[in-house]
């Protein structure tokens, strides 16, 4: 987790000068949609744990900002409630042992007007999260995975130091047998664009393109899955090269502000997913707090683009960078 932030910090931008940036714009397309800034809100579970309005408040902030909102399969408000906020909603899914429930969720996403499906592929099982285990992580009784109906309530027998209710719950729900054949099947059963989240190896990015995926997300799950996995800012350029313009490439894990967004663009990303900062805003101030975080990131990006001599997103992607003394 720490290395994700450090990797972004180590990137150095080579700004251009004597460029007219008076009329600069960060407008672009993301997930096939026009957006005012190249970012979307990442999928994050159980947001009512932080604020009573949870995902509805966070999605309302995204709607005001005009950016897509990815609702977690493990969200504490339903995809229908989130979509009703007016946000461009993406439904995030894990590969479930219960295929009928998986198909039901795909159908609900389509019926709710979601703009895409996002399959997270880096969780065959939940990573060993020591903080959760030490604290004996147990959700409050009123915080459930609302999209999963009866399966969303958790396991009553789990609790106490050395255990994690979330890990036990997902261990029952998630199927570790996910293969590229399954990805191709998912592609075949929905008309929605398909996003794969959790790509780090460029060979996997190429396989995703071959499977008909529309967007890949370079992600190590915020550093909470395989400890010691490569930082996303390090993995990003090779993934961009591997897809060679055949699909969009987003990046998350370690994005904390507008300068990080600019660095991601300079490394070839189509845009970013923002996670933790939005949760901090939600916890501090509900929908208004989350909206302020999105505003701040946008303001920081516009300022950074001006100082780097970038009148638009395309010019940001042409910026040169240096990392640990080597130019790219």
UniProtKB/TrEMBL annotation:
Q: Which GO terms describe its molecular function?
A: FMN binding; oxidoreductase activity, acting on CH-OH group of donors
The superkingdom of the source organism is: Bacteria
Q: Where is the active site?
A: 221 (proton acceptor)
Cofactor(s) listed: FMN
The positions annotated for binding glyoxylate are: 94, 129, 221, 224
Residue ranges constituting the FMN hydroxy acid dehydrogenase domain according to the UniProt record: 1-326
UniProt keyword terms in alphabetical order: Flavoprotein, FMN, Oxidoreductase
Q: Which InterPro entries match?
A: Aldolase_TIM, Alpha-hydoxy_acid_DH_FMN, FMN-dep_DH, FMN_HAD, FMN_hydac_DH_AS
Q: Where does FMN bind?
A: 43-45, 72, 92, 120, 197, 219, 252-256, 275-276
UniProt family annotation: Belongs to the FMN-dependent alpha-hydroxy acid dehydrogenase family.
Question: PANTHER family under this entry?
Answer: 2-HYDROXYACID OXIDASE 1, S -2-HYDROXY-ACID OXIDASE-RELATED
The name of this protein is Alpha-hydroxy-acid oxidizing enzyme
Which organism encodes this protein?
A: Polymorphospora rubra
